[in-house]
């Protein structure tokens, strides 16, 4: 197979888009269905990556590849999931402001620990030594295979979200988001639902963080800022918060435009890419959030399509 | 005893501007029920206006405070008319409102970075003398700044609680329909609140900037602290914000001295505040006002 057209920039751009699409899909369940504004995505994302990296690089493994990698991966996901459980427990009965405080505070706490615990995380210098669990020849071949695996994982997340939309669990999430006291009065366990939602979503975010960390081989505190949350959120909001494909459409249009089109195809002066373009990217993302929510609050794809059962009940 | 004195002096001199900012934030929050994430950029803009006038025209720092406060207040009113008022007229929900203000915050922050670039800026102030208070060396400039912040905070407190306009503000925040029925012009009072809140933020930004440096992230770095102080201090009573802010500042200074690492102190404070919120159990009620 001839892959000459796939240079390092384009591959990394595609990788970034697929990863943010995965984050957007997980956020969709929380923000779109259950209407919990998780501003701490980057915290779970970074915590998973760091937990994975610490176990992989600091432990003297008695057996060879790929077991240390796989065990560390599961460990990273479990740590992120437990953190999700804890944060979910903290914020499940708080109002929107409380959720904002809790999730932002959690993301800040992860950033603080990544900076201060130099013995474990390498502090501001970063943690290196994250390598692919396989070696199939060139760097490009390895990165391409890693990208393919990530795509499969995100496809699995997409399938999960699609299934949730057509399941009693999905209707429960919508009910919690719509009117929580009503859902509780009908005997639905809203508190446990939120806990489960946060635990699963956070484990998934941690997994995506691990994929990203391995792709760039280096974890630094500078990499786990609010910008990660912003990119996932702006993609989801632009595409449509309540639709299954919203995150994917939105992320392709936003992150895809900047990290693929601008990065690889627009004839811009080289010096712009280091300073002007990243700042401009965040500016456009911020403005997009405002404009979309003012003009078309449900995003490009529009309002929610209910599943067959709900449609028949409402006579549509 | 040493630790108490040290943390009292350091905590108050270092975190007093944040209390002023928290009061401004609480004012807007109380009126509109809106968590204005972009308030952090009002702080940053106040610092930038201050440093620009200070270095361009060579004005004294205290002469710069007036334009910095007024400028930040006007920008705050501008964001109200450009974003939050249209959003309210379109009946945007509480959750979307927070995301909108988050987007505005990101837009303004990176806009500043785009215009001013990465290098930080410094206020041009004479090198200060140092005197000893309770056994701690403090620059006279910081003491003067602390005095000004306290005066401004008390002035704001008096204005809200005692003056006629303050009464109108509290009336509008309490019950909009009733306030309107008793002859309060909602638009005028709303604009006034956004102006005063923004001005308090801008002044805080100028004080924060003169204490260290001015950078696009100046306000955002303080946002979580301000937000936590307002949430824990209570929105109903602006005095609670002052007390929570002062207590948090002193606690931060004490923990920083004990642990030798400001980040650990922040970590403990964040955890403590979130646990307080959890224990107190805020009722999940959507406030539908902006």
Write structural notes for this entry:
Chain A is mainly alpha-helical. Chain A contains 13 helices and no strands. Chain A has helices at 8-33, 41-58, 67-91, 96-116, 118-121, 139-165, 168-178, 180-185, 190-216, 226-239, 246-265, 276-295, 308-314. In chain A, helix 1 (8-33) packs antiparallel against helix 11 (246-265) and helix 2 runs antiparallel to helix 3. The longest helix of chain A is centred in the middle third of the chain and has 27 residues, at 139-165. Chain A starts with 7 loop residues before the first helix and ends with a helix. The model of chain A has no long low-confidence stretch (mean pLDDT 88). By secondary structure, chain B is mostly helical. Helix content of chain B is 78%, strand content 3%. A two-stranded antiparallel sheet of chain B has the order 1-2. In chain B, a hairpin with a 2-residue loop joins strand 1 (130-133) and strand 2. The longest helix of chain B is centred in the N-terminal third of the chain and has 31 residues, at 2-32. The relative contact order of chain B is 0.22. The model of chain B is unreliable at 283-290 (pLDDT under 50). At the A-B interface, helix 4, helix 10 and helix 12 of A face helix 3, helix 4, helix 9 and helix 11 of B.
Give the topology.
The complex is a heterodimer of chains A (316) and B (290).
Chain A lengths: L7 H26 L7 H18 L8 H25 L4 H21 L1 H4 L17 H27 L2 H11 L1 H6 L4 H27 L9 H14 L6 H20 L10 H20 L12 H7 L2
Chain B lengths: L1 H31 L6 H19 L3 H29 L4 H23 L13 E4 L2 E4 H23 L1 H11 L1 H6 L4 H26 L6 H16 L4 H22 L2 H19 L10
